[in-house]
Structures are given as C-alpha cells and as structure tokens.
Design goal:
The complex is a heterodimer.
Chain A: E1 4-5, E2 11-14, E3 19-25, E4 33-38, E5 45-50, E6 54-58, E7 61-66, E8 71-76, E9 85-92, E10 100-102, E11 106-111
Parallel strand pairs in A: 2-11
Antiparallel strand pairs in A: 1-3, 3-8, 4-5, 4-9, 6-7, 7-8, 9-10, 9-11
Chain B: E1 4-6, E2 10-13, E3 19-25, E4 31-38, E5 42-51, E6 54-57, E7 64-70, E8 73-78, E9 87-97, E10 100-105, E11 109-113
Parallel strand pairs in B: 2-11
Antiparallel strand pairs in B: 1-3, 3-8, 4-5, 4-9, 5-6, 7-8, 9-10, 9-11
Classes of the chains: A mainly beta, B mainly beta.
C-alpha cells in the first residue's frame, strides 16, 4: 500500500513566524511532489511542486525534498492569518499513470 | 489559467435516486479524476480517466460509474444514491507538466442524500 503520511495537526504558529509542514512517503518510485492548500469548504489549490532534491523557493513558500529519506516539507515564512488552511502533500504514483497519492493533510492555524 | 468547473456546488437528492455530477475542463487535459472527501478520511479516488472512453477504477468505485464521451467532460453517476454517499465530490484534471502530472481541482459539489 503506497502511503503519504502527514501530521494532522493542528499546527499553531504566531503571525510572522515560520510554519514547517512535513510529509513522508513510502513509494521510492515517486518522482514529483506537490503541495496543495485547502481552505475550509473549498477545493484544494496547487501552490508548489518539486521534483529535484533540495530546496525550491516561491515567495514566502519553500518546498524541500530529500528523496533518500523519502521526506518532503513546506516552509511558510512570515506566516499570515490568511495562511490558515489545511495543507495536503501529494506524490506521483510510481506507475506514472498520472495519479497522485494524497496525504490526509495538516491543518495550520496562524494566530494574530 | 486552468479552469475546471462542476455542474453544481450544492445538491440534495433522495435515497434511491440516480445522480449525475458533471465536470468540464477547458485545457485539453488528458487525465480526469473524481474524488470524494470526508472528514478524517481525506481524499479518496473514485475513478480516473486517461483518455476519451477510457476509465480506471480508483480506491472506492463501488456504487459509482463514470462516463467520458468527450475529452473535456467527465461525468460521475450514482446509480442509486444512498445516505453513505453524502460527501464533498471533487473533480480534477491533469496534464504532464514540468513536474510530471499536475492536478487541478474544480470547486467541488457538496452532495447530501436524504
């Protein structure tokens, strides 16, 4: 069973702090990794993707990938109350079928 | 921008009714998906289509069927709705981009079966 594990949270951080969201995956054949943000009652929105080991930065967001450890993370710098949402980690299925395997998500609360 | 639309945001149906949920994407994506999302259970794949008239069962296909007659449209059918199918239904489409298959979601349909 291919799995993606995330801490469900809630992760609570003060406004302006760095939020660190983590994800581990079991399928060593997974090649690409995605972070989705989902506000309550809304659908998931793709915010970051990464496929090479190391860091990838986009504004206040940094995705980090370590394939040897099968570990992906998302850092949110200068967290804002508007970042409060559930963050879903997703990885590609190693069969290259176009399917993604989703984690259950981590709920982030940014307190003013 | 990628646009995935779903026919209804909210739907209320009675037990035993046949229910059609429609999804349309405007980006010529080859893959389309139907998920349901329930509290504590996360996103679960119901069906997946990788081409017109082609479909593949996901993790929870029982009680559902799908139709893809045109590339842009993927329909989910509940043959005989039951109360345990009350859920948020999410459609997504994907293409092979820089990072592999990037998936984009529609706004969702919240279905209540009474």
């Amino acid at each position: 069973q291919k799995e993606v594990e995330q801490n469900s949270g809630p992760l609570s951080v003060p406004e302006g702090a760095i939020a660190s969201l983590n994800c581990t995956y079991s399928d060593r054949g997974s090649q690409s990794f995605f972070w989705y943000r989902q506000y309550s009652g809304k659908s998931p929105e793709l915010i970051m993707f990464i496929y090479s080991n190391g860091d990838k930065e986009d504004g206040r967001f940094t995705a980090q990938l370590n394939k040897a450890s099968q570990y992906v993370s998302l850092l949110i710098r200068d967290s804002q109350p508007s970042d409060s949402a559930t963050y879903l980690c997703a990885v590609t299925h190693s069969g290259n079928t176009g399917k993604l395997i989703f984690g259950q998500g981590t709920t982030l609360q940014v307190k003013p | 921008d990628v646009k995935v639309t779903q026919s209804s945001r909210y739907l209320v149906k009675r037990t035993g009714e046949k229910v059609f949920l429609e999804c349309v994407q405007d980006m010529d994506h080859e893959n389309m998906f139907w998920y349901r999302q329930d509290p504590g259970l996360g996103l679960r794949l119901i069906y997946f289509s990788y081409d017109v008239k082609m479909k593949e069962k996901g993790d929870i296909p029982e009680g559902y069927s799908v139709s893809r007659e045109k590339k842009e449209r993927f329909s989910l059918i509940l043959e005989s709705a039951s109360t345990n199918q009350t859920s948020m239904y999410l459609c997504a489409s994907s293409f092979r981009g820089q990072a592999g298959y990037e998936q984009y979601f529609g706004p969702g349909t919240r279905l209540t079966v009474t």
